[in-house]
C-alpha cells in the first residue's frame, strides 16, 4: 500500500485527557501505544511535537518496519484531527498514500479490523476532518471495530464510554491483530 520513497505516517485519532483515555473513541491512540511497545530493541517513547500539536515517535528503518516510520497521536479533539494530520504530513513530507489513520469504527463488530486505501468517512467526524484538511480521501484507513451502541443509545454517547469489561479484556488481542495487519501492509 505504501511507497518506499518517503516516510510512512501512522496517526491514531483520539480525544485528549484522561477522561477519554480508555474510551472507544480512543482506539486509534491505543493502537499507537501497541506499536510503540513493539519497537525494538526498546519501546518507542512519544514526545510532544509542538509545531503540529501531536505526540510523535520518529523511528529509523528497521526499528518497526523496513521504512522510516512516524507514529503520532493527536492531542486535540477528534473532530479537528485533520489540521494536525495535515501539519504532520507537511512537516515530514509524507504523501497521502503513505498516511495511515487508525480510528474507531461503529460499522464493524467489536474486534473486526479493516485496512483500506481511500473510501468514505461513514459519518466519522475525525475522518471527515482529515479528508477535508488533506484535500483528498486517498489515504489509508485502519478501522478498529467497536460495534454499534446497544438499544437506543446515541452513537456519540457510545463512542465516549469506556469499553465494557469483556471488551477491555479482549482489547489487547484486537490491538495486536490491528498492529499485525498494519505492519504486514508495510512490509
Automatic annotation (TrEMBL):
<feature type="site" description="Discriminates between blocked and unblocked aminoacyl-tRNA">
    <location>
        <position position="15"/>
    </location>
</feature>
<comment type="subunit">
    <text>Monomer.</text>
</comment>
<keyword id="KW-0694">RNA-binding</keyword>
<comment type="function">
    <text>Hydrolyzes ribosome-free peptidyl-tRNAs (with 1 or more amino acids incorporated), which drop off the ribosome during protein synthesis, or as a result of ribosome stalling.</text>
</comment>
<feature type="binding site">
    <location>
        <position position="79"/>
    </location>
    <ligand>
        <name>tRNA</name>
    </ligand>
</feature>
<keyword id="KW-0820">tRNA-binding</keyword>
<dbReference type="Pfam" id="PF01195">
    <property type="entry name" value="Pept_tRNA_hydro"/>
</dbReference>
<feature type="binding site">
    <location>
        <position position="20"/>
    </location>
    <ligand>
        <name>tRNA</name>
    </ligand>
</feature>
<dbReference type="InterPro" id="IPR036416">
    <property type="entry name" value="Pept_tRNA_hydro_sf"/>
</dbReference>
<dbReference type="GO" id="GO:0072344">
    <property type="term" value="P:rescue of stalled ribosome"/>
</dbReference>
<feature type="binding site">
    <location>
        <position position="77"/>
    </location>
    <ligand>
        <name>tRNA</name>
    </ligand>
</feature>
<dbReference type="GO" id="GO:0004045">
    <property type="term" value="F:peptidyl-tRNA hydrolase activity"/>
</dbReference>
<dbReference type="InterPro" id="IPR001328">
    <property type="entry name" value="Pept_tRNA_hydro"/>
</dbReference>
<feature type="site" description="Stabilizes the basic form of H active site to accept a proton">
    <location>
        <position position="104"/>
    </location>
</feature>
<keyword id="KW-0378">Hydrolase</keyword>
<feature type="binding site">
    <location>
        <position position="125"/>
    </location>
    <ligand>
        <name>tRNA</name>
    </ligand>
</feature>
<dbReference type="GO" id="GO:0005737">
    <property type="term" value="C:cytoplasm"/>
</dbReference>
<keyword id="KW-0963">Cytoplasm</keyword>
<comment type="function">
    <text>Catalyzes the release of premature peptidyl moieties from peptidyl-tRNA molecules trapped in stalled 50S ribosomal subunits, and thus maintains levels of free tRNAs and 50S ribosomes.</text>
</comment>
<dbReference type="GO" id="GO:0006515">
    <property type="term" value="P:protein quality control for misfolded or incompletely synthesized proteins"/>
</dbReference>
<dbReference type="InterPro" id="IPR018171">
    <property type="entry name" value="Pept_tRNA_hydro_CS"/>
</dbReference>
<feature type="active site" description="Proton acceptor">
    <location>
        <position position="25"/>
    </location>
</feature>
<dbReference type="GO" id="GO:0000049">
    <property type="term" value="F:tRNA binding"/>
</dbReference>
<comment type="similarity">
    <text>Belongs to the PTH family.</text>
</comment>
<protein>
    <recommendedName>
        <fullName>Peptidyl-tRNA hydrolase</fullName>
        <ecNumber>3.1.1.29</ecNumber>
    </recommendedName>
</protein>
